[in-house]
Amino acid sequence: xxxxxxxxxxxxxxxxxxxxxxxxxxxxxxxxxxxxxxxxxxxxxxxxxxxxxxxxxxxxxxxxxxxxxxxxxxxxxxxxxxxxxxxxxxxxxxxxxxxxxxxxxxxxxxxxxxxxxxxxxxxxxxxxxxxxxxxxxxxxxxxxxxxxxxxxxxxxxxxxxxxxxxxxxxxxxxxxxxxxxxxxxxxxxxxxxxxxxxxxxxxxxxxxxxxxxxxxxxxxxxxxxxxxxxxxxxxxxxxxxxxxxxxxxxxxxxxx
Length: 256
Description:
Helix content: 40-55%
Number of strands: 6
Structural class: alpha/beta
Number of domains: 1
């Protein structure tokens, strides 16, 4: 995991360093919460995906708590990088640097609402393209067409909302083909578009945002949160809370 906070993460994503300029392939940015840790613990392919070139930010207070428990040096430095908050912050701060944004994911209807909402909230925002891909597994046609439309748009930052683990595979594959920054932000599109309720700030800061989301959509999310959280807790208990968790195959990754 990369240790940072929302402001610094957004500044990096919109910086000239990250935006490149044709001298490298793109950046893949993944936001890792308890669900992703649980999946990585039992899926070697996904664990390898999270370990592939790119950046992992801790999106989820339980993940941050474990990072702090395993390393005293992180107790005052590790912060949650929440996807929707990072999205808002980067859209806002990027205006001063003429950052060009592309939205990839969700449905055409939600994308229309998202573009209207963000352009209203952030006057001067540059949205240079959007694409709602078909609801289907990722294949070569997805990566070919996705790389084509992003390249034509000349986007600096591509925000990807396809749900994990699909969006993590998408940002890694597209970053291999296009000189842009690809950020997997999950439900952020729905929150900003107003198509899904967002937890109050006090729940976000207490580690109970998952309970709000579960209550808002129990039929779709019960397995993710009830089973996923149980698996996450079992990983923490089995591997301990201290430095002994740092070893080959640890789904939390290497702390930097």
